Amino acid sequence: MVEDILFGFQWNDPLTYFGEISELVLASSLLLVFGFLFAALFIYLYYKKFYGITEAPRGWRIFFIGLLLSSLYQIFKIPYTYQWITGQVFVGVFLVFQVIAIGVLVYGLYLISKEIEIK
Question: Between 20 and 30 A from 81 (CA), which of 5, 20, 41, 96?
């Protein structure tokens, strides 16, 4: 694989890196992006309909933001997977963003669980 690297970006055909499976990896990453975005849309529509004109609880809003961050994480994963970007700085930024997205999702779920009382 011939590559030309400039500022950490690789300028070649990244779909040849994984061979025949590469298009399936790209398609699955894009499906995950759409899945998280559709889940965020359904969460948004749910709490808009359920809570009406009142403001939704903080847990739902945080969980919605977590789903949006997770979809961005999946988008950021594509260049990392195909090694369009190289270098330790990019790997560090990618991992920190992943931890933040998961943390926001978990915090939103924690707030939602505190709002629900089991009797």
Answer: 41
Percent of the chain with pLDDT over 90: 9
The CA distance from 101 to 7, in Å, is 26
- Greater confidence, 42 or 23? 42
- CA-CA distances (angstroms) from residue 34 to 39, 63, 70, 73, 92? 8, 17, 11, 12, 25
Query: Going by C-beta distance under 8 Å and a sequence separation of 6 or more, which residues neighbour residue 60?
Result: 43, 47, 108, 112
Distance set, CA 33 to CA 14, 56, 60 (Å):
19, 25, 20
Structure tokens given for 75: 């988008």
Which pLDDT score is estimated for 43? 79
List of residues 6+ apart from 76 with CB closer than 8 A = 94, 97
